Amino acid sequence: MTIAAVVPSLLSGLEVPGADNTLGLPPARRVVLLLVDGLGHELLRTHAAHAPFLSSLTDRSIDAGFPSSTATSLASVGTGLLSGEHGIVGYTFAVGEEVLNSLTWSRAGDHRHDLRKALVPEVVQPHPTVFERAAAAGVAVSTVAPLAHRGSGLTRAVLRGSWFRGVAGFGDLALGAVAAVGQDRSFCYAYHPDLDTIGHFYGPGSPEWVMQLEFVDALASRIASRLPAGSLFVVTADHGMITAGERIDFDTEPLLWQGVRVIAGEPRVRYLHTETAEVLPVWREFLGDRADVLTREDAVEAGWFGPVSPLAADRIGDVVVAMKGTAVLLRGQAEPSWNGLRGFHGARTKAEMAIPLLVHSVPSV
Question: What CA–CA distances, in Å, run from 230 to 142, 174, 217?
Fold first, then answer.
């Protein structure tokens, strides 16, 4: 019951070979999947009065997978695999000697350093996408997403195989999604990022976030009202979000630096590439009940990443730190862009991991 099963379950109704309907979704020949970045299941339930259309749909909760981070979840949407197989194991992670920011496909901490040539997206994530499989089966596959995502490293890595339509806002996203399923056997993946952005800046559940949720609800309603008869409209998310409580700054805690060669990830989940086994007990003692601190082997055995391939194993690091409660592990000097944010995600709490799966079937004529 994870995000990796969503697109294969939908494609089964489009008669794509090998696509299993493990989520038991209604079959349809025209399908729109809208992914709302940051729309956690708990957040939607808490603020249901501000999202009357979404709250009226058939609702169930599924798992975003770990880490509960945008690039990881979008890779699971696009490949039908969890992070341990597709290898996009977080916001930033080590690939060889580089630390890749998987959203911008640049060097971590330096968005100007484009890594698309050095770390070719189709090599970093080599598995065929579910969109490629659907297109090969004769399905008209489209992606409707922000203009800036066209040709990006992440788009190439996890969404290849679909026809890309770049959009600038709510209006062309809604109309583009509807237009994309005008013919028989068509599938559209539509992505909207702004609820997550607002949540990071102001906090999930803030007045600004609630108003953005109202806009998202209107967007979903407009799409559903314009879809052809017999279409299926599904809404999901990539993760939820928490409001930060305690802020721990790695850059001002020399004890945490000792034996750490590379630190990757993001404030709610960190990957430590280490030079000594002493890192694990030091971090466990320092963080205490504020985090789960596991070796890579223990995290893999616990199933955090799903099945783990050699491709992903080296990227996970030697030690995995998953924050608990609402604590965040910042890098005040090295990652200053996180310092002023209020909302975070990436760890294993229900607020971050539980995402909605909302289903609306348009009646046939």
Answer: 18, 18, 21
Look at the pTM and tell me if it is higher than 0.90: yes
Are 26 and 14 contacting, i.e. CB atoms less than 8 angstroms apart? no
Asked if residues 181 and 188 have their Cβ atoms less than 8 Å apart, the reply is yes
Q: How far apart are CA 225 and CA 227, in angstroms?
A: 6
Q: Which fold has domain 3-88+119-242+349-361?
A: Alkaline Phosphatase, subunit A (3.40.720)
| Mean pLDDT, rounded, for 255-277 | 96
Domain 247-343, CATH among 3.20.20.70, 3.40.50.450, 3.40.190.10, 3.30.1360.180: 3.30.1360.180
If 0-12 CB within 10 Å is exposed, 13-18 middle and 19+ buried, where does residue 307 land?
exposed
H-only helix segments in 227-318: 254-257, 279-287, 296-301, 310-316
What is the bridge-based pairing of β-strands 319-323 and 269-274? antiparallel
**Distance of alpha carbon 45 from alpha carbon 51, whole angstroms:** 9
Residues in Cβ contact with 110 at an 8 Å cutoff, skipping those fewer than 6 apart = none
Q: What is the pLDDT of residues 54-98, one digit of tens each?
A: 999 988 999 999 999 999 999 999 999 999 999 999 999 999 999
User: Looking at residue 158, what is its pLDDT?
Assistant: 98
